[in-house]
Amino acid sequence: MVSRNIYLQLVFRVILMTLTIIISTYFFFNDHYVAGGIGAIIMIFQTGALIEYVNQTNRKIAYFFDAIKNEDFTLRFPEKLSVKSLEELNHSLNMLNSMIQDIHLKKQAQEQYYQEILRQADIGIFTINPKGHILYANPTVQELLNYRPLNHVKQLNQVDKDLYALFADLQPFGNTIFKLGNERGKKELSLKCTPIVIEGQQLLLVVVHDIHKELDEKETDSWVKLIRVLTHEIMNTITPITSISESILNYFKKGTNPDIPTHFSEQQIKNTTKGLEVIKEQGSDLMSFVQSYRNFLSIPEPDRELVPANALLEKITLLLNEQKEHSGITIKTQIEPIGLELYIDQKQLTQVLLNLGKNAKQSLEGIDDGYIHFTAGINAVNKKYIQVTDNGAGIPENLIDEIFVPFFTTKNTGTGIGLSLSKQIMRLHGGSINVSSGEKTVFTLTFD
């Protein structure tokens, strides 16, 4: 509507000027010089009025954009004018100004919200421009580096020379672990530098995370779990030994004084014999438990070689099928690509996969159409993997975080060393082992 009214105004003024020129010319050619002169003067005034009209509109629009550029939203144009087109133009500019002001306020509120999130974040974040200037650094990164304010990457040289060397060439780098020592102690920092583009400017986004505290907490938690399991196992073994030893000792002791029995009843002889047998069995179990602990701590470094995944899984399938129990279980293998090879210690990985297969068989007791699937392949991040899947009873949700703790077991037999030993073997291979359990239980071995 505004542009239409301005357009009509311009057309009207141009037509009026054209008519004035035609009439003035007519008077001049018919020797009416006075009338022609008056027409020329009128045309000059019309031209000036047209220029003023255009300039007035242009000045308002120029003032408007200058105010927007300077984030000055106080500019207001009068909306009660004699000229309808200018009144509508002023009204439209005021509306547009209010809309831009609302957007600006919302953007500021959003920016403050994100800045507050960054300030409260447990990870350190800062950005570097191509000249090495640090445009933003949240309080966490300044606390981690014990240096504030951070304005330029060269300041990292005062924190640690090796740390500065990581950023000296202002090039991005992947996840790096850096050990930083200062008067506040030692910190183990995870650093990652990623390129980003904001408003056409190339920047480096740096994320810093203190993993030392997190590792300490996990290590302490692991020790607590291990000690709890060890205490439980040892107490279960020693308690009957103590009880039986006390019962047998009473045969040879009256109160606090030793007593030489002159006669043993048949029942006492049986009780003594049975008690000594139990003590022997419990002692053997305790020795076996300690030996398992020794085996867990003395796993040799893997003797790695390229092993075809097909040959490895065929061997595991053969060993599991030879076991008489649970013979109704279907065992399948799937490998993609067919010629997949794994750089592993074959004996150690056979031990891991055989242990997972035996656990899967035990979980399938009493289940019809039970199956165990071994799958080998390459995942989305180009890492080789083996998955062991079964449709057994599954792992209770409250126990899934405990199954890799050494000596933790829910079975009546076994030492509970199998899964923790498997995890240790995968760690020595530079890989990992993970589990998920629901309708199916899936153990995934991932190799780096």
Automatic annotation (TrEMBL):
EC id: 2.7.13.3
Segments forming domain Histidine kinase: 229-448
Reactions catalysed according to its record: ATP + protein L-histidine = ADP + protein N-phospho-L-histidine
Domain of life of the organism encoding this protein: Bacteria
Top EC category: transferase
Main location: membrane
Occurrences of domain PAS (ranges): 110-149
Gene3D superfamilies the record matches: Histidine kinase-like ATPase, C-terminal domain, PAS domain
Membrane topology, from the record: Multi-pass membrane protein
Molecular functions per Gene Ontology: kinase activity
Keywords for the protein's UniProt record, in alphabetical order: ATP-binding, Kinase, Membrane, Nucleotide-binding, Transferase, Transmembrane, Transmembrane helix, Two-component regulatory system
Residues that span the membrane, as ranges: 7-29, 35-54
InterPro entries in the cross-refs: BphY/WalK/GraS-like, HATPase_C_sf, HATPase_dom, His_kinase_dom, PAS, PAS-like_dom_sf, Sig_transdc_His_kin-like_C
Subcellular location as annotated: Membrane
Keyword 4Fe-4S: no
SUPFAM superfamilies in alphabetical order: ATPase domain of HSP90 chaperone/DNA topoisomerase II/histidine kinase, PYP-like sensor domain (PAS domain)
One matching Pfam family: HATPase_c
Protein name: histidine kinase
Organism: Maribacter chungangensis
